[in-house]
């Protein structure tokens, strides 16, 4: 009888863990999009479910939108890779390469949402923002971020710098210097912030190299 009870408890625990591991699903897929399930990369299809700790990447012409169970949405541009490190009341997305749009509804008390990359942590309570890797310098790259709605708090743990970025503003996070003061940039409105394919095109075709150069040009220490 004891072994039977242990078996039932184990099955119940496994079911709970499996449910907790669900992170969301893919609501838009275009071009090369793959999911790493812990063993190998698999081609992703529209409607595919994703779990916590899985990696998602796009190829040269790939775009994917992920609707998370926490209510947030992510859009990866081409040549990007992320890890869904935690999805729920506390959501953490680790960006390993490329660029990502994030749309986060207003968080309830106790709920958190953050994007991490290298030594940067961008935390929000409800906003739309875009994050990308810039030029690589030695083992680190410049990072850059701009906000469409709301406010994003950005911390660089390596330089102990901390800034708030408001709607319409952007920043460069240098690989070895403190984060400079955010500045208003008109091109933040030109990015394709749409996350719903039923409302129109979702692929972003903005000249990001030009936008990045504009950030660097106005990067005052």
TrEMBL record:
<keyword id="KW-0732">Signal</keyword>
<dbReference type="Pfam" id="PF04773">
    <property type="entry name" value="FecR"/>
</dbReference>
<dbReference type="InterPro" id="IPR006860">
    <property type="entry name" value="FecR"/>
</dbReference>
<feature type="signal peptide">
    <location>
        <begin position="1"/>
        <end position="20"/>
    </location>
</feature>
<feature type="domain" description="FecR protein">
    <location>
        <begin position="55"/>
        <end position="152"/>
    </location>
</feature>
<protein>
    <submittedName>
        <fullName>FecR family protein</fullName>
    </submittedName>
</protein>
């Amino acid at each position: 009888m004891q072994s039977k009870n242990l078996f039932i408890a184990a099955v119940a625990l496994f079911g709970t863990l499996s449910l907790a591991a669900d992170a969301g699903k893919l609501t838009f897929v275009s071009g090369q999009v793959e999911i790493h399930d812990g063993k190998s990369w698999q081609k992703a299809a529209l409607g595919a479910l994703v779990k916590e700790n899985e990696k998602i990447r796009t190829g040269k012409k790939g775009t994917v939108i992920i609707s998370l169970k926490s209510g947030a949405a992510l859009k990866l541009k081409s040549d990007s890779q992320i890890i869904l490190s935690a999805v729920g009341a506390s959501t953490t997305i680790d960006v390993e390469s490329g660029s990502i749009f994030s749309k986060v509804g207003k968080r309830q008390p106790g709920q958190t949402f953050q994007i991490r990359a290298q030594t940067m942590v961008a935390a929000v309570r409800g906003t739309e923002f875009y994050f990308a890797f810039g030029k690589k310098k030695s083992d680190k790259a410049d990072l850059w971020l701009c906000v469409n709605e709301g406010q994003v708090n950005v911390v660089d743990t390596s330089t102990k710098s901390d800034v708030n970025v408001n709607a319409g503003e952007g920043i460069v996070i240098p690989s070895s210097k403190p984060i400079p003061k955010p500045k208003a940039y008109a091109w933040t409105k030109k990015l394709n912030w749409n996350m719903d394919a039923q409302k129109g095109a979702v692929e972003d075709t903005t000249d990001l190299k030009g936008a990045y150069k504009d950030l660097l040009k106005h990067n005052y220490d």
